[in-house]
UniProtKB/TrEMBL annotation:
Pfam families: DnaB_C (PF03796). PROSITE patterns: SF4_HELICASE. Signal peptide: none annotated. GO terms for cellular component: cytosol. GO terms for biological process: DNA replication. Residues 1-236 form the SF4 helicase domain. This is SF4 helicase domain-containing protein.
Length: 238
């Protein structure tokens, strides 16, 4: 499963929410940021405390009470973080299989794909990404669990009048599109322009490819302050 988008669309927040919503053991590789940063985002979403306030430490007594409760709730979630950067795809596969045997993990999350490297030689970056994509697909097949990888998009959509992403915008390799069972593209129009009330805090999850599921678009509510997604409903008080 690929979750892709341009910077600022909420990709890392989305996969974080996937980990939280799942009640099964999850192996989480937050390669782009530290585990501490990822957990602070989780706390913000659970506690309904501004992410910026958590980063700054300017917290009220009520904020602290909410944070303590959130930490207690999150500690019960079977999420296993791998606090290592610059991992190769071979290390990702080995760690995942070990965690599958030891902890019975039912989901792997990787944030994000383009930060991975392969130990095997490749003529160019596109070929290397193709090898990485193939190994992720093999991992999902071997363990029979979902493997969710965040992916960047190239700049093509930035040059279009309609900036909604397309499958062809996937960065560095067509193999990502080919190997994935599901490709979800995140888009928020308010990132690019001023919007009306009915578009504020709204994200689109565009299912651009779906194996055994329909393609289409789902609207989500995006709360940047608390770093979380939610169910969409139109409310002019947003």
């Amino acid at each position: 499963i690929i979750i892709a988008g341009r910077p600022g669309m909420g990709k890392s927040v989305f996969v974080k929410d996937c980990a939280e919503a799942s009640e099964v053991p999850v192996l989480y590789f937050p390669i782009e940021m530290s585990v501490s940063q990822t957990q602070k985002r989780q706390i913000a979403g659970y506690a309904d405390v501004s992410f910026e306030k958590i980063l700054s430490g300017m917290l009220t007594d009520q904020d602290w009470q909410r944070i303590v409760t959130a930490v207690s709730q999150l500690s019960e979630r079977p999420i296993f973080y791998v606090n290592k950067g610059h991992l190769s795809i071979e290390e990702i596969v080995a760690i995942s299989k070990q965690a599958f045997r030891k902890h019975g993990i039912k989901m792997v999350i990787i944030d994000y794909l383009q930060l991975l490297r392969s130990k095997s030689k490749a003529e160019n970056r596109e070929q290397e990404i193709s090898k990485i994509s193939m190994q992720l697909k093999g991992l999902a097949r071997d363990l029979n669990i979902p493997v969710i990888a965040v992916s960047q998009l190239n700049r093509s959509c930035e040059n279009r009048s309609n900036k909604r992403p397309m499958l062809s915008d996937l960065r560095e390799s067509g193999a990502i599109e080919q190997d994935a069972d599901i490709v979800g593209l995140l888009y928020r129009s308010e990132y690019y322009k001023k919007v009306n009330n009915d578009e504020r805090n709204v994200a689109e999850l565009i299912i651009a490819k779906g194996r055994n599921i329909k393609t289409g678009m789902v609207k989500l509510y995006f709360n940047g302050e608390y770093q979380k997604f939610g169910n969409y409903f139109y409310d002019d008080t947003f």
